[in-house]
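ok so dumb question maybe but i'm new to this and my supervisor (M.) told me to 'just get the structure for SPEB protein' and walked off. so i did the thing. is this what she meant?? sequence i used:
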Amino acid sequence: GGDHTITYPILQAVAEKHGPVGLVHVDAHTDTGDRALGEKIYHGTPFRRCVEEGLLDCSRVVQIGIRGSSYDPDPYEYCRDQGFRVVPAEECWRKSLVPLMGEVRKQMGNKPVYISFDIDALDPAYAPGTGTPEIAGLTPAQALEIVRGCKGLNVVGCDLVEVAPMYDVSGNTALLGANLLFEMLCVLPRVTTM
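this is what came out, is it supposed to look like this??
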């Protein structure tokens, strides 16, 4: 997809069919801002708009890889107040995320879940082709552990956003994005993999 704004109308449609859904949100940013340049809808606000419209089951929202600069002394306060589980990037450094995804699967249960993956969750050493890169991010192996860790969940939709190929002459960001999308398709319910 394009920027993270696209997730907002997608979740409106998903919630119309399934009701409020759980969310596995992988990103450098929480995307729960209220406004930017006076606008309420932009790529840093989709999940606040979703909360306001009751599109998310907030007890089943987990945000993984969050980091970066902020204008707020407690940038995750809004998320915690909604009941989101926030997993900052530093809690992911130098370890496998398989145990974390075991916890996430228990949290999500068998109710509908949406996966939203912002490519800037990955360290720009691996995925520089994005508009808001943040240092000290996840590795591609950890990204695979997260997506593969969603196997068995009642995944009703997914997206991968914020890939900007013109910022990466190597093409690695687009390649990584395409592979992560393929992996997401493989964890959809009733998909058989070898």
